[in-house]
Design goal:
Blueprint lengths: L8 H14 L8 E2 L1 H8 L3 H13 L3 E4 L3 E4 L4 H22 L5 H19 L3 H16 L5 H13 L4 H7 L3 H17 L4 H23 L11
Antiparallel strand pairs: 1-3, 2-3
Length: 227
């Protein structure tokens, strides 16, 4: 049993539970027993309940009558809607952030993408997904509109239950994705037209969605627009 003596117990409980959801240790539908979690963390159920409420607000946890808290099951429609939304938001956030990115920012993004290039050869969907989020976070973090940044981060949170699975279903997509990352970085370095940068970033996101839909429904036409 871990004893928690310092820091915010609610924050520690939130981080502890969220990490297990993200790593799929607590998969979709997993029942979160507050008393058991509190016992593991050496705290009362009050901060655990607060942490669960935060996770519910992020759509990572749902409450069911007579059942309690469960890890959310992300259905395909929700994935599609969130990816479409993220494409729009991330494209615009990157457009606004581009003029404010420093040489160090671009070097950091390039280093992350180089790790992704190497990972393609020995693919790990979970690690790839983490690096993918880190890459894009570097590029939109300097967006001067904090509300847009918040919306992008919320959209990423909504995908937590299915992102690793999606890349596992589309084994050819990661290689193309990191090549497109190279293209995004080159556009930013060379001061490309903002409209072109926004469109390319948005299309990059939607190509992943189309690859996912093709894998799930090989006989159905694309449901997103990537042109």
């Amino acid at each position: 049993m871990t004893t928690v003596d310092t820091g915010s117990k609610s924050q520690l409980a939130y981080d502890w539970i969220r990490e297990r959801i993200t790593r799929h240790e607590y998969g979709p539908g997993y029942r979160l027993v507050l008393g058991a979690i509190a016992s593991d963390l050496g705290m009362s159920v009050v901060p655990v309940r607060e942490a669960i409420r935060r996770l519910e607000a992020e759509n990572l946890v749902t409450f069911e009558k007579n059942v309690g808290a469960r890890v959310s099951v992300v259905d395909e429609d929700q994935y599609v809607f969130t990816m479409q939304t993220l494409g729009l938001l991330e494209g615009y956030a990157t457009r606004l952030a581009a003029p404010h990115l420093t040489a160090d920012d671009l070097a950091r993004a390039a280093e992350i993408n180089e790790r992704m290039h190497r990972l393609v050869e020995h693919f790990d969907a979970h690690v790839y997904t983490q690096l993918n989020q880190q890459f894009h976070a570097v590029l939109f973090a300097r967006c001067p509109n904090p509300q847009i940044v918040d919306l992008v981060e919320r959209s990423w949170s909504r995908l937590a239950g299915l992102r690793d699975t999606s890349f596992s279903l589309i084994p050819g997509r990661p290689r193309h994705s990191v090549e497109e990352h190279d293209g995004i970085l080159e556009m930013i370095r060379t001061g490309a037209d903002p409209d072109a940068l926004e469109l390319f970033t948005r299309t990059h996101r939607l190509r992943t969605l189309d690859a996912f839909l093709d894998a799930r429904h090989p006989d159905t036409a694309h449901r997103s627009e990537t042109s």
